[in-house]
Every structure is written in C-alpha cells, then in structure tokens.
Amino acid sequence: MTRRAAKESDRALALPLEDSLGFQVRDLNRAMQRALQIRIQPSGATLGAWYFLRVLWEEDSLTQRELATRIGMQEPTAVIALRGMEEAGWITRDRSSEDRRKVHIRLTDAGRALREELLPRAREVIGVATEGMSEAEVGTLIALLKRAKANLEPLPVNQAPRRAAAPRPPRSG
Q: Model-level pTM?
C-alpha cells in the first residue's frame, strides 16, 4: 500500500468531522438554535420556553409529564422551565381534580399571542438555513433526516440490533 493510500485509508477510518453525519447535524442544530435565540430573545422567550410553546400551540392542556416527554426533557428540568413560563404569564399550571399527581399545563392568552410573534422568526431562521435550496431539496432533506431518525428508534426487546456497516474506503478517481 502506498503512503498516500494508507493516509487516505486512515482518514476514512478516522471519520473526519466534515464527513460525520452526527457532527454535521449537531453543528447545524446548534447554529439554528443560536440564530433562533437571537430572534426570539426580544420577546423574553428562551429556547427552553420555545420548545414548550411549540408543543402547546399544537395541543394545549397537556400534563407536565406529557409535555416533558414530547420535548424529550426530564420532568424535573421541565418544572423549572415551566415555572419561568408561568411567571412570564404564558401558561397556567392546574392540578387535576381527578388525579392530584397530574398537573395540566395550559396556555394563557399571552402565551397563545406569542405564536404570531415567534413563528415568523422561526420561519426566518429556516429560510436563512435553506437559502439556495429548492423546495424539493428542502423536502428531501427533511425526509432523509426523518428516515435516519427512524432507523435509530429503539428496537423491540426481542429484536437483535443491526450489525454496524464497516467503514467504506473512499473511492478514488
């Protein structure tokens, strides 16, 4: 094996960041979050509040546990964020009369009104991120990301995990 071929092989096995799907997705997510935070900050909303608001704008009156699960956040962490949202006047937290362990989260008028202010800012971030892409390319990107996520969803207990594919050496020429 030539020195150059060995170097290319080492590079392929090392999975450079620019070729790492995980790194690129994480890097894009961080950039989008920074851009969104800058745009929503004037309203007083934080990124933590943003995710709860997004879910509640779609389906109001969820329990604290349901809301935390949908966002992928631990319930104790959610409680802290929700407390801040309640202090801002965007939500109410009401204990269930049927099951005192459950706390229902409901948007206030002020929380609902934020939708008209913040969603255009989110669309702006998406527009900047997808600048130069056709509508079809954006659709393909979203579909591919959804497929990759579905591939990683937990397998049933009785199903063996897929065998990882061996790294492919780069094609030359």
A: 0.74
- The CATH number of whichever domain residue 44 belongs to comes to 1.10.10.10
Per-residue pLDDT at 88:
95
| Closest C-alpha to 92, from 120, 51, 62, 47 | 62
What mean pLDDT do residues 38-57 have?
94
Could you tell me the residue range of the domain that residue 85 belongs to? 21-152
Q: Is residue 146 part of a domain?
A: yes
